[in-house]
């Protein structure tokens, strides 16, 4: 199986680069090696590799910066995946692509299912939704995996920011009125490999997040507790912490479709967080 992986240095891409070789021959590319904002580079790369599967882990993920960089976010998150999908269609490859809870507006009181109407509140969410639609329109075989609140032991993420701040500051103030499922990049990669090993039976859009849900404040408290720190974490509201991009209040995605079609469920978010922190401690020791 020939696999082309983009975004190999991102949180999810890094984990995929270590797991996809179990399935076949992987060409893993960084942003410097394949810029998704460059359609000619996409065309040349895909035609040279002739992949059976393309896994697109590259994305413009700076949610707040996207509010003032709509063009770049749209190029990378919508146009790029559209070109990848067109090339996938031309060479008969399956395209695996990641999307986000931010395609929803968060007003639904219960977990979102795949068929719920999208209504992104941010430029980032709009660009990711446009990416989903470009892939669907291209007609290639595809899996769009919507995930949320991704963290890892490396990269830029909420976990590493909270660990740093909890050591630097006497107390933390964290938003407590946005709910979601913190999801470890490693679990996304493991699930992706499992889905790819039965790729002929699956197609379309799936929600892929950890089990269980919490708020950013609940996430921060668990991080501080599991790290053995005693920094108090105070609950604040979204209104107390204004950001350029508006985020959904309810980001919880139902993963029932994945459970039914693929028999797959990710562990509870607390369990994965404990594993990730154990790995960080191991690395530090
Ligand atoms: N992070 C989250 O909380 C979250 C939540 C929901 C969904 N997702 C989705 O999950 C997927 C993986 O996200 P992640 O957390 O692994 O993101 P990440 O850590 O930010 O990694 C994204 C990677 O894409 C690269 N990239 C950026 N612009 C590019 C371009 N023009 N061409 C090629 N590569 C480019 C980045 O390189 P540089 O570092 O050099 O910019 C980075 O290596 C994305 O589709 C994202 O939208 C993420």
Question: How is the secondary structure organized here?
Answer:
Layout: E1 2-6, H1 11-19, E2 25-29, H2 39-49, E3 53-56, H3 70-91, E4 94-100, H4 123-138, E5 141-147, E6 150-151, H5 158-168, E7 172-175, E8 179-180, E9 183-184, H6 185-196, E10 204-207, E11 214-215, H7 216-226, E12 233-236, H8 256-262, H9 269-284
Parallel strand pairs: 1-2, 1-3, 3-4, 4-5, 5-10, 6-9, 7-12
Antiparallel strand pairs: 8-11
Could you explain how this protein is built, in words?
This protein has 9 helices and 12 strands. By secondary structure, the protein is of the alpha/beta class. The strands form 4 sheets. A 6-stranded parallel beta sheet has the order 2-1-3-4-5-10, sandwiched between helices. It has a two-stranded parallel ribbon with strand order 6-9. Strands 7-12 form a two-stranded parallel ribbon. The chain is globular and about 55 Å long. The N and C termini lie far apart (38 Å). The structure holds NADP nicotinamide-adenine-dinucleotide phosphate. NADP nicotinamide-adenine-dinucleotide phosphate is lined by residues 6-7, 9-13, 31, 34-37, 57-61, 76, 98, 100, 128, 147-150, 155, 185.
């Amino acid at each position: 199986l020939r696999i082309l992986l983009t975004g190999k240095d991102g949180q999810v891409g890094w984990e995929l680069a270590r797991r996809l070789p179990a399935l076949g021959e992987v060409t893993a590319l960084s942003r410097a090696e394949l810029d998704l904002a460059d359609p000619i580079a996409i065309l040349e790369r895909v035609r040279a590799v002739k992949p059976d599967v393309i896994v697109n882990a590259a994305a413009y993920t700076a949610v707040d910066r996207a509010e003032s960089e709509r063009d770049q976010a749209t190029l990378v998150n919508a146009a790029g995946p559209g070109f990848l999908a067109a090339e996938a269609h031309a060479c008969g490859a399956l395209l695996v692509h990641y999307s986000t809870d931010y395609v929803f507006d968060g007003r639904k009181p219960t977990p979102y299912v795949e068929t719920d109407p999208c209504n992104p509140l941010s430029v980032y969410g709009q660009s990711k939704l446009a990416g989903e639609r470009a892939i669907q329109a291209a007609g290639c075989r595809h899996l769009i995996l919507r995930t949320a609140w991704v963290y890892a032991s490396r990269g830029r993420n909420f976990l590493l920011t909270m660990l740093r701040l909890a050591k630097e500051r006497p107390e933390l103030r964290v938003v407590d009125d946005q709910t979601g499922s913190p999801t470890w990049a490693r679990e996304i990669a493991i699930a992706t490999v499992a889905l790819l090993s039965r790729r002929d039976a699956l197609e379309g859009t799936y929600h892929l997040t950890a089990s269980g849900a919490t708020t950013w404040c609940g996430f921060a408290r668990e991080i501080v507790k599991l790290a053995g720190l005693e920094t108090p974490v105070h609950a604040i509201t979204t209104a107390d912490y204004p950001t350029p991009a508006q985020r959904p209040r309810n980001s919880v995605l139902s993963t029932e479709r994945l459970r039914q079609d693929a028999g797959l469920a990710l562990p509870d978010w607390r369990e994965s967080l404990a594993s990730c922190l154990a790995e960080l401690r191991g690395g530090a020791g």
